[in-house]
Design brief:
GO terms for molecular function: GTP binding; GTPase activity; translation initiation factor activity. It is found in: Cytoplasm. It is a single chain. The protein is of the alpha/beta class. Helix content is 35%, strand content 25%. It is built from 16 helices and 24 strands. A hairpin with a 2-residue loop joins strand 5 and strand 6. It binds guanosine-5'-diphosphate. Guanosine-5'-diphosphate (GDP) binds next to helix 6.
Length: 478
């Protein structure tokens, strides 16, 4: 059980530099991202006048989410989740609309289909879930976030146009995700439709049609006329059956946020796909940095439902904030732990953001001042003799102008060390050295943490550089 220096500082609402300093006094060299064991963390917390509860700080996400493997006997068949991909204008949207219109209303009560990012259709006594944002961009964006939601991709290729650049992209994305591909050769009603040419081109991209001895299922369809759509759906079910898709409905739900937005009247609304377990009204859900008890759930026909099992998309209300598409959601039991995890994630996000907002250097100082990000330039001074440290401190502090104040956060005699770099990194400071050099470790650490170390022989040069940097007039050094 560990906690990083940065997390500990955040929980205590203290600057990370303060924690790092305390650790140094204990003889421990640690960077912001260093993991501390519980004993050290609690010692530091006490030193800084804080107490904390072990379980809150040291939350183990895996344990919280109880993400245990399901026993084989608990698994039941689930319906497939399908995405439609292909080149622009080849008919993805038309196909999704056609499938929805011919298969949803039939035999089902309830209103008009609602857009909740996915819908289900009934085929015989089976169901299929379609993600209704076509294209591989959304699909891949979700996958980039670690969400593996789809089982089967329908690759739409217009019979009058053949394989195009985005068709190839789609093939590659589906392959990378290890998703089964079924080809819908579309627009066969059109004059100039040439399905065999499509088959030929598919072969060139490693998808050999079944009728030509390969294992790629191709169905000739017309999304416009509704031709062979039933056959296409049958093929989806066939492939799904071969994949033996299963899930355990008798456990707390886990799944993926398909899309989410802030609704004026209803607050944060998230469309989620349950992938395992059963989601119920009242469940406490954590999704990314959002959490909350499910207040209400609606299915893809706009009907209010009390529960949703595997492969079922629902819209949920009750989250504290709007999660992001691709966020994994979990049902959790312990509210305090859930809160701790969410806080931890928010902290990590913030840290990521801060990482992206570059650390200060003399080269970007002016930019940061202009952007209003810098009100204070923190500097660490290292010099060969104490007299120089003091002299430098005084001259540098005098540079302070209207926009920026120069603040010497640390000054000492000796080489620039790793701990100087850590302090600089934690405090967004630059290091100025006079007649000293960085140790090997320090040079490496500075490169890693993007800390600017400037070495000088003459105080005047340092002052000049910093003054220029503050005015955006520093010549870049290469
Ligand atoms: P997407 O960009 O892949 O979503 O393609 P759309 O579904 O928007 O379709 C692009 C155009 O092709 C539209 O004008 C559709 O009406 C037309 N279209 C789609 N499917 C068919 C079809 O089966 N036959 C014919 N003739 N036109 C189609």
């Amino acid at each position: 059980e560990t906690i990083t220096v940065g997390e500990l500082a955040e929980r205590m609402k203290k600057p990370a530099a303060e924690v790092i300093k305390k650790l140094m006094l204990l003889g421990i060299m640690a960077s912001v991202n260093e993991n501390l064991d519980f004993d050290t963390a609690s010692l530091i917390a006490e030193e800084l006048g804080c107490t904390f509860e072990k379980e809150i700080i040291l939350t183990d996400e895996e344990k919280l989410f109880n993400d245990v493997e399901d026993a084989p006997e608990s698994l039941k068949p689930r319906s497939p989740v399908v995405v439609v991909m292909g080149h622009v204008d080849h008919g993805k949207t038309s196909l999704l609309d056609c499938i929805r219109n011919t298969n949803v209303t039939e035999g089902e009560f309830g209103g008009i289909t609602q857009h909740i990012g996915a819908y289900r259709v009934r085929v015989g006594d089976k169901k299929i879930t379609f993600l209704d944002t076509p294209g591989h961009e959304a699909f891949t964006a979700m996958r980039a976030r670690g969400a593996l939601v789809t089982d089967i991709a329908i690759l739409v290729v217009a019979a009058d146009d053949g394989i195009m650049p985005q068709t190839i992209e789609a093939i590659n994305h589906a392959r990378a995700a290890e998703v089964s591909i079924i080809v819908a050769i579309n627009k066969i009603d059109k004059e100039g439709a040439n399905p065999d040419r499509v088959r030929q081109e598919l072969t060139e991209h490693g998808l050999v049609p079944e009728e030509w001895g390969g294992d790629t299922i191709c169905v000739e369809v017309s999304a416009k006329k509704g031709t062979n759509i039933d056959q296409l759906l049958e093929m989806v079910l066939l492939v799904a059956e071969m994949k033996e898709l299963k899930a355990n409905p008798d456990r707390p739900a886990k799944g993926t946020v398909i899309e989410a937005q802030l609704d004026k009247g209803r607050g944060p609304v998230a469309s989620v796909l349950v992938q395992n377990g059963t989601l119920r009204v009242g469940d406490l859900v954590v999704a990314g940095t959002a959490m909350g008890h499910v207040r209400a759930m609606n299915d893809d026909k706009g009907r209010s439902v009390k529960k949703a099992g595997p492969s079922i998309p629902v819209e949920i209300l009750g989250l504290s904030e709007v999660p992001e598409g691709g966020d994994v959601f979990y049902v959790v039991e312990d509210e305090r732990k859930a809160r701790a995890v969410v806080e931890n994630r928010k902290f990590k996000e913030k840290q990521e953001r801060q990482k992206k907002t570059t650390t200060v250097s003399l080269d970007n100082l002016f930019e940061q001042i202009e952007a209003g990000k810098m009100k204070e330039l923190s500097i660490i001074v290292k010099a060969d003799v104490q007299g120089s440290v003091e002299a430098v401190r005084q001259s540098l502090e005098r540079i302070t102008n209207d926009e920026v104040r120069v603040n010497i956060i640390h000054g000492a005699v000796g080489a620039v060390t790793e701990s100087d770099v850590m302090l600089a990194s934690a405090s967004n400071a630059i290091i100025v050295g006079f007649n000293v050099r960085p140790t090997n470790g320090a040079a490496e650490a500075a490169a890693d943490a993007d800390v600017d170390i400037r070495l000088y022989r003459v105080i005047y040069d340092a002052i000049e550089d910093i003054e220029k940097a503050m005015k955006g007039m520093l010549e870049p050094v290469f």
